[in-house]
Design brief:
elongated
């Protein structure tokens, strides 16, 4: 029987990623926050991303028209600015003329909160031929962010790319180009840029803001890319929170076909990581009861009741809890005290799993190791369960060794248990 994802879990996997690309970029964190406003042209701010200008030399042939434009801009006379701008542009003779006209156009746009006009002013400055090398990066970056705000992804991409050519280590430009790529459906390229940004910010023991990880996962999940699972693990590795565990494991569960045994092991991981959702409890308890692990089912249902995540009065839960309670009577006491030489590897493994369900991890480890040494042992499965029990015991080294030995169809889940062991054990 194959496990299916519940509607609630599907909603969970998408809910954390409902942010639009533009909103996401605004929330990239303090280390990566893009410029949200254009500084005044003559402002020489310490911020390397603020627009910088130099003092141009205006030609005598265009001085009158440029002065008239400056007067209109300073007076914020919106009615006369268009004609004054056109006259100044027609009279411009030199690169510096065109440069100062672009600055005045930018200033007029800023006064009117007109992003398109601001962008046009910066375009004019860049096209003038008078921009100095140290002015180019902030101009391209701010221009890209303006086009981002105007939902012109292609133009935003072009200018972010120009900015990155000048400063390849710019976190702001990297974030912006990633969002521009995502906005045009170029998910793989966007993710590569986000991973680059994470690496840039993680140098020297630092840590990139969590939003970078969440955006990478969100883009991969939306595009149905298989790397969403790996990205989810990286998110958990950097930020092992309930939110990251819940979403990463939901994406993993959506992306693979799990049988009931694998689903049970996934539920065990969710429980260990504190990532169980209300919709998980019945599935967990039902599979555990039917597989012969009533003690585990009873325990997890009691946990859900105690946390008020599920209701004991709900008929489905009350019935399941009643069955589990009945089946646990004398169950633990009936388990063999030690592995039997004549028992098969599978039977020994099952006994270890029963002890695991009762949180008797030392006994579970004893039986798992015995199962591993028997003929016909499924080494991948036994090592997975051995690593799980050792991780829950707090034996990080032992869990790591066992889980690293897991291959085959159990390998992906073993990687998540390894992650749990590294962050919890």
């Amino acid at each position: 029987m194959k496990s299916t994802m519940t509607a609630a879990a599907m909603l969970l996997a998408g809910a954390a990623f409902a942010t639009s690309p533009a909103e996401a970029q605004q929330n990239y964190g303090a280390q990566a926050a893009p410029q949200q406003s254009i500084p005044q042209p003559q402002e020489q701010a310490e911020n390397q991303n603020a627009i910088k200008t130099h003092t141009p030399k205006i030609s005598s042939g265009a001085a009158k028209q440029i002065q008239a434009l400056q007067t209109a801009v300073n007076a914020k006379n919106a009615a006369t600015i268009p004609a004054a701008l056109a006259a100044a542009q027609a009279a411009a003779k030199t690169n510096d003329d065109r440069y100062i006209i672009g600055i005045l156009q930018l200033k007029a746009g800023a006064a009117a909160s007109d992003k398109a006009q601001i962008a046009a002013g910066i375009e004019a400055m860049l096209a003038s031929g008078s921009v100095t090398p140290d002015e180019k990066f902030p101009l391209y970056l701010n221009l890209a962010q303006l086009y981002d705000a105007l939902n012109q992804d292609a133009r935003a991409e072009q200018n972010y790319s120009q900015a990155l050519q000048i400063n390849p280590s710019s976190v702001e430009a990297t974030a912006g180009l990633a969002e521009a790529k995502a906005g045009q459906g170029q998910a793989a390229e966007a993710i590569a840029l986000l991973e680059k940004g994470i690496a840039l910010q993680s140098a020297g023991g630092s840590r990139a803001p969590e939003t970078w990880y969440k955006r990478a996962v969100a883009i991969a999940y939306k595009a149905k890319l298989p790397q969403a699972v790996d990205l989810g693990r990286e998110w958990v590795r950097a930020y092992p929170t309930t939110d990251s565990w819940q979403n990463a494991l939901a994406i993993y569960q959506l992306g693979v076909q799990l049988d009931e045994n694998q689903t049970l092991d996934l539920m065990r991981l969710k429980r260990a990581a504190g990532a169980l959702q209300p919709s998980d409890y019945f599935n967990y308890g039902d599979i555990a009861v039917r597989k012969g692990f009533a003690g585990e089912a009873k325990s997890v249902l009691e946990q859900g009741f105690g946390a008020n995540l599920i209701k004991r009065a709900d008929p489905s839960f009350s019935q399941l809890y009643g069955i589990a309670t009945t089946k646990t009577k004398g169950d633990l006491e009936s388990l063999p005290a030690a592995p039997a030489a004549a028992a098969t590897s599978k039977a020994t493994l099952n006994t270890g799993d029963a002890y695991f369900g009762y949180a008797k991890y030392d006994k579970a480890v004893e039986f798992y190791r015995a199962a591993l040494s028997k003929p016909g042992a499924d080494a991948n499965l036994v090592n997975l369960h051995l690593g799980m029990a050792l991780a829950l015991q707090g034996d990080k080294a032992g869990a790591t060794a066992a889980l690293n030995a897991v291959g085959g169809t159990e390998a992906a889940l073993a990687q998540y248990w390894l992650l749990y062991a590294s962050t919890k054990a």
